[in-house]
């Protein structure tokens, strides 16, 4: 959506986004031994670069061309695509050893991830999850439901499935889920 592109371009131009890689990639880096990786809604590539540094050839997709300009790495191919209207399987035309999806929820894309992974491929996901105590202002369509990831990744070996409360920029509490799983061998 054009609206999303404008909003995110402004944030990346104003340097409002974190640069450090996600804690779960760092924690499970022993599982990351190279191959091909896909970062869905990669933003400035904070996580894509972490994978590229560990020997992966990466595809990074995002709607924000300002974010993608911040990724200059010979091991990362960037794709400026609107995931609301893109058929990932048709566009990417390959299977991945690792697919990561951090803080971007599109249920159509989420359900495609199992089909994008090689046998024994790994998925890393971290994003907001619903909780009855949560009274924040994230749009409901952008929050995972309880048990939703377990349904999508049924049959996968679950390596991490952890929920915790965080404090967002504006001081608001929100619950996130960190999820790591491996495709059936
Ligand atoms: C909260 S940021 C997360 C970025 C990155 N995954 C990270 O963890 O640093 C959300 C990202 O989703 C991207 N995005 C939002 N709507 C999109 C769409 N329709 N298609 C592709 N990317 C989109 C934004 O440009 C932004 O980079």
Question: What's this, in brief?
Answer:
The chain has helices at 2-13, 23-27, 46-53, 65-68, 88-92, 107-116, 148-152, and strands at residues 35-40, 56-62, 76-80, 96-102, 117-128, 157-167, 173-182. It is α/β, with parallel strands linked by helices.
Q: What's the CATH H-level homologous superfamily?
A: Vaccinia Virus protein VP39
Strand order of the largest sheet: 3-2-1-4-5-7-6
CATH topology: Rossmann fold
As a whole number of angstroms, the C-alpha radius of gyration is 16 Å
Helical proportion? 25-40%
Count of DSSP-assigned helices: 7
Give unreliable regions as ranges: none
- The CATH class label is Alpha Beta
Distance between the termini: 37 Å
Our estimate of the beta-strand percent is 25-35%
Describe the fold and architecture:
By secondary structure, the protein is α/β, with parallel strands linked by helices. The protein is built from seven helices and seven strands, in the order H-H-E-H-E-H-E-H-E-H-E-H-E-E. The chain has helices spanning 2-13, 23-27, 46-53, 65-68, 88-92, 107-116, 148-152, and strands at residues 35-40, 56-62, 76-80, 96-102, 117-128, 157-167, 173-182. Strands 3-2-1-4-5-7-6 form a seven-stranded mixed beta sheet. Strand 6 (157-167) and strand 7 form a beta hairpin. It is globular. It starts with a helix and ends with a strand. The mean pLDDT is 93. S-adenosylmethionine binds at residues 1, 4, 8, 41-43, 46, 62-64, 67, 82-84, 102-104.
């Amino acid at each position: 959506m054009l609206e999303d592109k404008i909003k995110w371009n402004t944030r990346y131009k104003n340097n409002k986004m974190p640069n450090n890689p996600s804690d779960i990639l760092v924690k499970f880096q022993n599982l990351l031994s190279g191959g091909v990786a896909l970062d869905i809604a990669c933003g400035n590539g904070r996580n894509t670069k972490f994978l590229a540094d560990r020997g992966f050839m990466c595809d990074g997709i995002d709607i924000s061309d300002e974010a993608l300009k911040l990724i200059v790495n010979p091991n990362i191919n960037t794709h400026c695509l609107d995931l609301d209207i893109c058929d990932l399987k048709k566009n990417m035309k390959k299977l991945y050893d690792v697919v990561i999806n951090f803080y971007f929820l599109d249920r159509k894309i989420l359900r495609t991830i199992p089909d994008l992974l090689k046998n024994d491929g790994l998925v890393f996901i971290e994003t907001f999850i619903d909780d009855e105590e949560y009274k924040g202002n994230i749009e409901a369509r952008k929050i995972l439901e309880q048990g939703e990831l377990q349904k999508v990744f049924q049959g996968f070996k679950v390596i991490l499935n952890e929920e915790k409360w965080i404090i967002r920029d504006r001081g608001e509490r929100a619950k996130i889920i960190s999820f790591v799983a491996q495709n059936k061998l």
